[in-house]
Amino acid sequence: MPVQSFVYNSVPQRVVFGAGSLQHLAREIDAIGARRALVLSTPEQRPQAERIADMLGARAAGVFDRAVMHVPIETAREARDVAQRLGAECAVAIGGGSTTGLGKAIALDSGLPILAIPTTYAGSEMTPIYGITEAGMKKTGKDWRVLPRTVIYDPELSLSLPVGMSVTSGINAIAHAAEGLYASDANPVMDLMAHEGIAALGRALPAIRASAQDPVARSDALYGAWLCGTVLGNVGMALHHKLCHTLGGSFNLPHAETHTIVLPHALAYNAAAAPEAMARIAKALGAGNAAQAVFDLARDNGASVALRDIGMKESDLDLACAHALQNQYPNPRPLERDAIRALLQNAWEGARP
User: Fold this and answer.
1) Best CA proximity match to 41, nearest among 120, 98, 113
2) What is the pLDDT of residues 302-325, one digit of tens each?
3) Cα separation of 55 and 44, whole Å?
4) CB under 8 Å to 19, separation ≥6 — which residues?
5) pTM for this structure?
6) Residue 64 pairs with which residues in a beta bridge?
7) How far apart are CA 99 and CA 58, in angstroms?
């Protein structure tokens, strides 16, 4: 076995994990050094945001409930203005990737510290990666100012996450770990986290479908999401994430569903060029083929497996392919136009790899 060579950076970030850990919110805001917090959410999760504001009492600067997918630049600017006007010294983002992404957009300009309370398995809370959509194009970047200072993982808050959303959010998390295993800057610490994260979600998602209120399954899923999100925040992503950002930002497709559908096909595209990564993914899922195991996990637990089922037009596949090839980026297999176009066609049709 060849001697390994790698670089590993540890990140200063506090994680509070466990059922009922939301009770420590005020303590964690104190630890950040803030006195007033703006609570962020989507419109649908406003009741949870109001619960947070009630818990904080006079320390709540207000609630901003307009977080949406892909963080439109207009919404980001409005939220930044509101935070400044209300004198917020930190933001508390409760929800999934959309809400965390909005918090990051505020932090990017203002440096306002973020405390994230994830209720899905997106993993954005563990990364310094942000994305903002402007003029129909989603632009992503990396800046350590946007990394949430503290993350509270309370599995009880995910009990109400619908089963369908749980499955797609969980496979979205698996995508982070899967691509981390063949990242150009991979390291053995992240490899361990990736394998463990995939295995935890592979156990959890069928159990959640069987019993949505299963506390062990919910804890397992959130644990897996934390590990997979950590991988996303520490090593680079490749073809799968590029394709999903293109499809989501340019064609307004739902984030987690897009990741769920595209991942098996991206893995099949890279399989021959990254055999060790594929073997780890397959082993974590108790299967013989990584791409097929992810496809089956989605299909067997009720998720859509075809882009046409979530609003993608076949006539837009050529444009999506062109967007995906605009900039070169590290990937185990070279980016080949015809092969990527075929990948998108298979994803659109929902063909099993």
Assistant:
1) 98
2) 999 999 999 999 999 999 999 999
3) 19
4) 154, 155, 156, 215, 219
5) 0.91
6) 40
7) 22
